[in-house]
Batch of 2 targets.
Target 1
Amino acid sequence: MDRTITVKVNGREYERSVEPRLLLSDFLRHEIGLTGTHVGCEQGVCGACTVLVDNEAVRSCLLFAVQTNGREVATVEGLGAGPQQMHLIQHGFWEAHGLQCGFCTPGILMSLVPFLEQNPDPTEKEIRDLLSGNICRCTGYQKIVEAVQLSARLIQEKSS
Amino acid sequence: MSTRQFGRPIKRNEDPRLLTGRALFTDDVQMAGMLHVAFLRSDLAHARIRSIDVKGASRRPGVAAVYTAGDLGEFWQPGPLLVPPPPVEQLEFHQRTQTPLAKDKVRHAGEAVAMVVAESRYLAEDALDDIFVDYEPLDAVTGLEAALSEGAPLVHEDLGHNVSARVTQTKGNWTQAESEADLVIRRRFLYDRGTAAALENRGIVASWDEKSQRLTIWDTTQAPIAIRNGLASMLGLSEHQVRVIAPFIGGGFGPKIMMFYPEEVLLPWAALQLGSPLKWIEDREENFYATTQERGQVHDAAIALKSDGTILGVKDLFLHDAGAYAPYGLTVPINSQCTLLGPYVVPSYHSEFSSVFTNKPIVTPYRGAGRQHGVFVMERLLDIAAKELDIDPVEIRRRNFIPPDRFPYANEIIFQDFAPLVYDSGNYEPALERALELIGYEEFIRTEQPRREAAGERVGIAVVNYIEGTGIGPYEGARVTVEASGKVSVATGVGTQGQGHYTSFAQVVAEQIGVAVSDVHVVTGDTDLFYWGAGTFASRGAVVAGNAMHAAAARVRAKILKLAGEKLEAAEEDLELIEGRVQVKGAPQTSISLGQLAAEANPMRGAVQPGTEPGLEATEYFGPERGATASGVHAIILKVDPETFLVEIEKYVVVHDCGTVINPLILDGQIQGGVAQGIGNAFYEQLHFDDNGALLNASLMDYLLPTASDVPNIESDHVETPSPLNPLGVKGAGEAGAIPVGALFAQAIDNAFRDIGLEVREIPLSPNRLFELVTEASARETA
């Protein structure tokens, strides 16, 4: 029954034997111990489990681990080297108080990585449209929007 | 420190861990040999259990155990009553609490009937399909009035009726008020159920260590200490053998203060039986049934007024939906009863409620905790009165405000903390005026609204007031320790669910000890690190635990000054605490670091003075005599699409008074998040139960939580009226944002449809429901 898969996660290769029905979210969290990816609904609605597969934001609760065989996955743990060396998007969220309980945050950060690559100077409307795929129950979104605006600015300042 | 720590918008200590995926949530706990739990839950809301056959499930490969109520022996007990009824004279109370697994009968859909333990969650869920329960379906009771009618199905047959409690509280004389009134308005108001929907579902990990004889539990609870005490008692262990850790928690909002959830007692019990660590993580569908909900009430209310709008009295008879069990006592309906009085002088009040058992999930506090209903009823009554008396809705409120020189203001009834409802302080008019200025009230009414209405738009404005009883007792504690590293560690018993306690508490301590906020390490929610406390609820963390922090830090400061005075041979009053050092004022070269002082306060050899306490450490407790009353004003301008009846919020203003502000960044976040939940409650979120008690929209696809496209930017300002009830002068802020939003929406939508005399008397609304209400009102208007 089990299938052997090889997945590159945050640049490191993992080979595991898994059941075909194992969700990618469960694979990441419980098979390889990357618990930064959170699971809020397992129905693809809340967006908390968003990760990148080949640099595209996907819901890891709607994919099977076997579907990522031979592909590259990026999770929040790889988005910066750690609490002392965070990514600029993480800094933006820290400065702007873009999180409260922090449960939805990893999914939002991962949704933003390709978004800000493609939209380096987004409007508030574009930011809110993107964020509408991620539910946050704590913040009311206002400071998340501010955090995204700040992140975009920080990234632009660094690249200029 | 040269700059103050208290009152500044300092970014949060906890964020780097959360932002990098390194914070520990309950489902992140992994242990060798851990087994996983799944629950079989009833699809029926009301049914007798004839038999349960678990043989098939037990035989499945990978299944370690299957339990039903019959397997629990004497451990099967109804849960404790968390909050006893308050000392009110006219009170009837019938205690019925939930059990670990349903035995003879299920009383709401989603009630657990069997528990499977297996090698993985997948296998445990597979095995649920192999359990056969033979149910005898019973008629369900879902409506509040239906539950009280003759011949209604009985949720608890032994009770003989469906009344959970009846409470009457009065002040003044309603009959007299009614007879002296120029106008009496009577209306029925409805408020229906929603769910807190924290992004993180509930979860528990329980591990028994045979060698140390200790049980460790990670629990998504807002009250770890009470969980430890209760579990120790139920399991026959010493409290010192049980450690409960509430790690990072993905949102609480009230339902995570409820205890004991069936899963919360079953996991620890089974971990002891099996000797293996166990984990259960609720899924989203379970969360819709098995986590507690709020707020079905029906109010029949009346207000008596003079022709100038002065309130003479209010009468309110209401029914409260308790759900199938009532472990949380009367907190929610008592809050409704007390909060109704608002910031107004109400000389006479007669309030009478019946709390009713229904075949629906259990009701316990969810952000606002019944206060919404009271605010909705009072604000709607005032709106209708203003219309009848042809007074501006803002003006009628202004005329009835409690004047600032009348505090403390006694309302002569009993609040949820069992103390008399006395407002400690308040100053309502400045907040109202500021809100009017920010929303542009006069300008909108005089020019913008007529202009836009002439162009065919439907736009409305609203302004509502509320008060919120916060920061209630009994008490919390804190221990503050300066370590030899010079950093400060702080521990308290409350749990934290995103409120920024690691930072706001650190600010309170840093202010006293003169270190950077980032050098204060706060631990919350680990019973091994702080033994005493009650929990995080009722907007009380900053008030009660915050003041305990303040007291403990002040004592440590005194110890620092005393010891430093000896070491530096200087008078204490000549010393100052700056950037982690104690120095002589004006002579910074004469100084000693806190780390060095801490080391010297803990000598390893030699003798100390009799009575010496080692270390730079202190533990203090704080318990207020009663809650601190926060207040605020919300104002809105909204547009209703006349075709789709979707609502667009064009402007939203909050002016809030929660006393002294510890961290304005965190406070704004609390307000904004509260308003977002209020908007959900007002216009998006409603749990739809059918007549059989089945929940028809138990998923996030069908139950609509507001998204970033639905919640506007909120413009906020603060008025600071410090509380005299605590040294920091703070009042709670956690629930405020959510409380008045239903009343605000109703007023604004009425205003947008005032030409057809629309009168919204229910929350939640939705585009569909609004279309119906407008259609009915139009038909009445043209009839």
Note: The helical segments of chain A are 24-31, 88-95, 105-118, 124-131, 142-159.
Target 2
Amino acid sequence: MNLHVNYMGLPLKSPIVVSASPLSEKVENIIAMEKAGAGAVVMFSLFEEQIRSEEAIYEEILEQSAYSSAEALSYFPSVSEYPVGIDAYLRIIEKASKEVEIPIIGSLNGITNSGWIDYAKHIEEAGAKGLEINVYYIPADIEMDGRTVEDKYLEIIGLVKKAVSIPVAVKLNPYFSAMANMAKNLDGAGADALVLFNRFYEPDFDIEKMTISHALQLSGPGEIRLSLQWIAILYGRLNASLAASTGVSSSREVIKYILAGANCAMTASALLKHGISYITHMLDEI
Amino acid sequence: MMDGNEATAYVAYRVNEGCAIYPITPSSPMAEHADVWAAKGLTNIWGNIPQVIEMQSEGGAAGAVHGALQAGALTTTFTASQGLMLMLPNMYKIAGELTSAVFHVAARSLAAQALSIFGDHSDVMAARTTGLAMMASASVQEAHDMALISQAATLQTRIPFIHFFDGFRTSHEINKIEIIPDSVIRQMINDDLVYAHRKRALSPDNPFIRGTAQNPDVYFQGRETVNAFYNATPGVVQEMMDQFGSLTGRQYHLFEYEGDPEAEEVIVLMGSGVETVKETVKWLNDHGRKVGILQVRLFRPFSMQDFIDKIPVSTKKIAVLDRTKEIGATGEPMYLDIVNSLFEHAAQEESRMNVKVIGGRYGLGSKEFTPAMIKGIYDHLQGAKLRNHFTIGIEDDVTHTSLPFDPKFNIEKESVTRALFFGLGSDGTVGANKNSIKIIGENTELNAQGYFVYDSKKSGSKTISHLRFGPEPIRAPYLIERANFIACHQFNFIAQVDLLKYSEDRSVFLLNSPYGPDEIWDYLPKKVQETIISKKIRLFVIDALSVAAETQMGRRINTIMQTCFFALSGVLPREEAIGHIKKAIEKTYYTKGKAVIERNFLAVDTTLENLKEVEVPAQVSALANQKEQLSNGISEFVKEVTFSMMNGLGDSLPVSALPIDGTYPSGTTKWEKRNIADQVPVWEPDLCIQCGNCSFVCPHSVIRAKFYHEKWLDDTPESFQSAPINARGFPETNYTLQIYSEDCTGCTLCVDACPVDSPTESGKRAINMEPNTEVIRAQSQESARYFEAIPWNDRSKVDFSSVRGSQFLEPLFEFSGACSGCGETPYLSLLSRLFGDRLIIANATGCSSIYGGNLPTTPWSTNAEGRGPAWSNSLFEDNAEFGLGMRVAVDKQRDFALQLIKKIENQVGVDLASEIIYAPQKTESEIRNQRERVAVLKAKLLKLDMPEARELLSVVDHLVRRSVWLVGGDGWAYDIGSGGVDHALASGRDINILVLDTEVYSNTGGQMSKATPPAATAKFAFGGKQVGKKDLALQAISYGNVYVAQVAMGANPQQTLLAMREAEAYPGPSLILAYSHCIAHGIAMENGMQQQKLAVESAYWPLLRYNPELRKALHNPFVLDSPEARKTMEEYAYNEMRYKILTKTNPAEAERLMELAKEMVALRWKTYERMADTPASGFQPVN
């Protein structure tokens, strides 16, 4: 069966796209994903906050001891030789882009405007064919109203679209009071695709140990309905592509999402559970 | 812009195929550059990457150089001081075999009455008989150029060369130089000579033997075969200099004369002092004096004719200055050469000159050598009565060798900006200043010079940056004495250091101050106010810490203060300077990401808004005064000598003030009260469970505990805190945890070690960090005074076997200058608590010898009885032998005492004699009893008028068992001293070796040792350590009769305590390997003990004890004290920058090496586990 699809202008050989996960931290995994039949791979997310804090730690540790003793002006080989922060991420994109033919889609979580713009540019230059912006933002500020939150998303998509020429997808959470209108506005702001939906890390309590538990639960097939509903609602009403990204654990969910109107279905949970070769299994079933 | 080390290594690397290296100050950076360049794939002029190999010692490096040369590769090495001494045997061989090579030496003092890391020519002068030619460079540019000329000459002459330049003054001075293009280097190196060098190499295709043993028949003649080569060398060197001159425009000569062509007085010298003399001569010539200077470049072979040719015929008097001291000789080496040259010249032909020659010493151990001193020498030469064998720059009030000089004499030019910056090692001042020099030196026509002075502490060290900028090349290798810009980056210095004594009239003073322009005046000490008014100094303030906080720079004030300097100094137009700073920031932090760059930019922009000039009042109105020195109960020596050094006045101490044999009093750090911590621990008596953990881990022994009768609370100062002791059987007893806030470095290890969590206030512990305010300091002082009045607890009543008990033992290692949060010093503090009053320590050179014995003070202290650790540092390589020698002496003298007491038992009492001879001395109370018996014996001996009694008195103290410890780091135990350690362990003697294992050469800046673990990076292991760490524990266990323990205080303090006590009690050799977290691991030091715990939990560092006593009793002597891995190696390692770096620079290699490391760790664990299950018969039998 011809499973070719088009996702935000990118021709994909199959509708199964690997979503952002630790699996893409290794180039050999990305090669395996292509072999298994993935249509595209979304890289693990680059978190600006993490990079900033990592940079700060490096700077502090390497320099805390510099020039404090006549005998030891430093404690490590020349500091400037160490690339930190975004370099490692870009290196994987560069290498993976050379090794595979399927599109590599960068995934970025920024916190500042300059972070969004600069890192997006770097990801494009490294060879990514698309960019997924992962606005991982919990509006915990009690003073912040809904319009402000929405404007923040729109501002970011506007900034990133101006900065790069590759297609840009927005990974959304489902908590907008007027989801359809928000989707329309994002479409209008230039988003080339909407990815429905993002899952936040939701802490839990471990009442045995009386501690907070941060373990991430993998998504399951029971969770697809929300995404399914919104893809069905939005299908045919936007220029942007639609990607479904929750609860894909077998070919059944992929089929359901395609039937609802998704351009592609994304999964990482199924692969973390069954291995990368599970893509082939799912495709065979379709 | 570069320093002398880089300038030299730049050339050496390009013209060699191999570098055999070993770290030693101040030459280490040359080796470090070579290692990094090789790792980055930089090629030499033949297009290949030189092989860089780190050896186990300088002796090893010289051997490797010799071997590589014999096998045909052009090979070099870099060294200094004792390192060069270890190379001497091979140097004779290399020269004897006429082998082309250059040894690059950052010339440094030799350890004599004390070690000195600083510069003079003692080391190279000790090598002058090896047969190597000796080429001296006087500046950074010369170091660069002579490195090449030496290499070209060695190939041509076949004579190996020492190329040397002054340690620190040239090796570490940053100056603007012209880099030799590779094309010129290429032209200077004749490939035919390189081929000839290779052709002379050992080859099975053309076999011969070299290195024979010669008999009386031919050895002598053999030595004379080389004469022609040495005779030809000066001419060849001059040829090379001429060729170099024609290629670069920089023409050099073997001897260089500068000054009045009709000079009557001439100074002869070599090294960096040449530059200062040249500038002074110029000034004197301009002022009508007929003086000159003769610079010596090629010192060996010394060309008498070239020397004679260069000396003006008009010369009447010559002063030869040697930067070394040759005791017992008829003069220092170069002086004798000059005298002899003139003598032989006179003997051979009718002398053109009737010259008087005197010799003098200057600049030993980097003693300043200034224009004032030089003028003093010329003035002396003008006089009728000349003092030979003089000294200059010191006051010798004992043998009266010193010449007078006027310290106010100054030749600094007004066109030169002279800036002084006072900062802390950790505040980035030096880094920012190096950056400023580069900005100016590389982006403008101005010339620039930077030199940096550090104090001897590793934590809270003061730094002084000396920067000069000017239109002409800067030839001033001496410290700035008159500055037109002074910046004080730490506000508290204003009360501690007399900063403004260096200021010129109408100069600028920039102060980082928490007080604004309207309030600062009243916070300045009276003396500072007076100077500001009298010298009409313009005062500027900025609250750099607030600007840093506001711009998210944390506590980093370097960029802010650098901006202020450019804004005020006028070296460059302000806007242009700011532009350059920003460009430099982008360049420096390019790889660190945009965020860091933006933060720095913001700091620059915000700085200018906050920089304010203070309107200086006409009157002094000081509320504050300069810090007052303590004086009560302090010896005269400490007051006069130690305090002078502490106050930066050591240069003014006369010879008579100093001990004649390097002996200094113990326990002097307690007078420093450095107050370097921003935050200090504060005790919560109500929450405290009195476990002693905080006191146990404190690296600086600032936390101490006592229990005492509650009557002591009757009249306590308000600040004295107390709590009822929480132990049974101690009625009416209270407990106090005293914190010496003024001596704390703020590391927070104590807080981390506290097991208490307040039930009412989350996160609060029984000890918490709080800002080190004036109030806290005052309370701490008052409370400590009262605490000290309470006697230490009776050692026989303290439970030595528990961490809790050990807190009540007095530490006799206190307030060291080690890094804040140091992982080594808690072990030493514990050692001193347990055995301090009968401890003899042989301390290998390294961090522990520096924080243990670097003047002005020492942390090794004494108790109320005046007893305490007797400590000495010999060298780096010989410490095990040094300590073993101590043991031999102790045993011998104890045996002699026993022999004597038996001999006069009737006179001293048979019972007493018998008790003393047969007294058990394992426990503290047994030792206490023996002390009492010996005291009685002493009293009796004093009354006996017989030779045996007098003899016994001289050794009687040995009847109390002494504890001999050999202490050092892994660089010593695993590498340079490994042979000695092995021999000491094999001796069967009662010695205790404590290895403070930081897994790297910490003191010299983090070079790889054989203790460095695989997968970690270090200097000399840029690409990650490839081979496993040596298992020193197993090596020692293989002897069977050696007590061995591997400990990590942060993981199991109780096991550490047990191991130390077992090791000390064991009557044979003992080895303790102590995991010591270190600043060179790239960790946040406050997490040091947690990292130790992870090292053990991941099974990277298993805790073990091997006790031969158990084997004797037919039990398994090997005990594993830690469980198998509960954490992964990654969980431990990737908290540390040393491991993490490789995951960034070479992720695939990091992964490969980590897998390898894990395999090694697992294998070692299995081996240990098997040993723990092996019956006694599976181990070596013990005698």
Note: The two ends of chain B are 64 Å apart (CA to CA).
